[in-house]
Automatic annotation (TrEMBL):
Entry-linked Pfam families: Phage_integrase (PF00589)
Matches recorded under PROSITE patterns: TYR_RECOMBINASE
Tyr recombinase domain sequence ranges: 1-117
Protein name (Swiss-Prot/TrEMBL): Tyr recombinase domain-containing protein
């Protein structure tokens, strides 16, 4: 989106990123392109991996993980919708509201990231 987006990382994400860094060395990208380490992996690479795992394009896309997060976070009723939207780097469409509602909801986004990581841990554990 060509905008800075700061993301709070839960301990689980930091551990995974540390492990990935050890596997990939100290390159610029943790997920480099298969063709050149000077560019990041594309969304199409992730979608191709999902197809190889047996998911059709109607069942899941890389972008669909964001939709799943949004749906589950909103349906939980635990989080302010603006915090969820900021976590997704979405910009308020209403120009007047966007001009005045500039908060980043950081503290809530930190708790939201921890909640999401625990949710995924629980889902993985069954």
């Amino acid at each position: 989106m060509r905008r800075d987006h700061v993301v709070p990382l839960p301990a689980q994400a930091i551990a995974l990123l540390d492990e990935l860094r050890r596997m990939n060395g100290n390159g610029e990208y943790l997920f480099p392109s298969l063709r050149t380490w000077k560019r990041p992996m594309s969304e199409n690479t992730l979608n191709a991996a999902l197809r190889r795992m047996g998911y059709s394009g109607d069942e899941m896309t890389a972008h669909g993980f964001r939709a799943s997060f949004s749906t589950l976070a909103n349906e939980s009723g635990l989080w302010h919708p603006d915090a969820i939207e900021r976590a997704l780097a979405h910009v308020e469409k209403n120009e007047v509201r966007r001009a005045y509602a500039r908060g980043d909801h950081w503290e809530e986004r930190v708790r939201l990231a921890d909640w999401w990581a625990s949710y995924l841990d629980d889902a993985k554990a069954g």
